[in-house]
Each structure stands twice: as C-alpha cells, then as structure tokens.
C-alpha cells in the first residue's frame, strides 16, 4: 500500500490546484465570518438579517457547508460583516 502525504486536506480532496486554492480561500473566509458573527453575540436570525442571508444560508455558513457558498458570496458576506478582504497572489511553489 502506498501512502500519500498532502500539504492540506484540500490538496487531498480536490483534483486541481485551482480547485484547491478556491476551497482554501472559501474555508478561510468562512472561519473569519463565523468569528465576526460570534462576536456580535446575536441570534442566527438577527445575524442572517445583518448579512442579508436567508436562515438556511446562514445555517450553511455556520455549519461549514463550504460547497453551498461561492467565493464571491463569501467576499460579500465578509465585507457586510465588517471584515476587510484582501486577495494575495504569489508564484506557485
């Protein structure tokens, strides 16, 4: 049996470097947005209103259902949550 090692779980799950980069960015943004929401100390319904989300979409965000929210949507949500979003592009290693 061959054992493979990966730099991250996304490298193991995704088929291409582009898909891996997208998933990493989405995961990082979801974590940051959830942290901002937790600091508000409000109900999910109020947080959903602040972010302009439906209750099911808020539930997807808080439960980490990464395939339910696009990168564009997460950028919008991050800015609505009062976060600053910056994209950094570097040469591949």
Rg (C-alpha, Å): 15 Å
What is the global morphology? elongated
Order of helices and strands: HHHHH
Helix proportion: 55-70%
Structural class: mainly alpha
CA(first)-CA(last) distance? 28 Å
CATH topology of the domain at 16-80: 434 Repressor (Amino-terminal Domain)
CATH structural class of the domain at 16-80: Mainly Alpha
Low-confidence stretches: none
Tell me what the CATH architecture of the domain at 16-80 is: Orthogonal Bundle
Name of the CATH superfamily of the domain at 16-80 = lambda repressor-like DNA-binding domains
The largest pleated sheet is described as: none
Compute the average pLDDT. Answer: 88
What do these coordinates show?
The chain contains 5 helices and no strands. It has a domain at about 15-80: 434 Repressor (Amino-terminal Domain) (Orthogonal Bundle). The mean pLDDT is about 90. The chain has helices at about 10-15, 15-40, 45-50, 55-60, 70-80. Helix 3 (about 45-50) packs across helix 4.
């Amino acid at each position: 049996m061959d054992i493979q090692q990966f730099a991250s779980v996304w490298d193991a799950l995704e088929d291409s470097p582009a898909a891996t980069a997208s998933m990493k960015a989405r995961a990082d943004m979801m974590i940051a947005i959830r942290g901002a929401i937790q600091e508000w100390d409000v109900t999910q319904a109020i947080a959903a209103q602040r972010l302009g989300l439906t209750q099911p979409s808020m539930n997807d965000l808080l439960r980490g259902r990464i395939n339910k929210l696009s990168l564009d949507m997460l950028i919008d949500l991050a800015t609505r949550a009062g976060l600053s979003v910056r994209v950094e592009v570097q040469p591949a290693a």
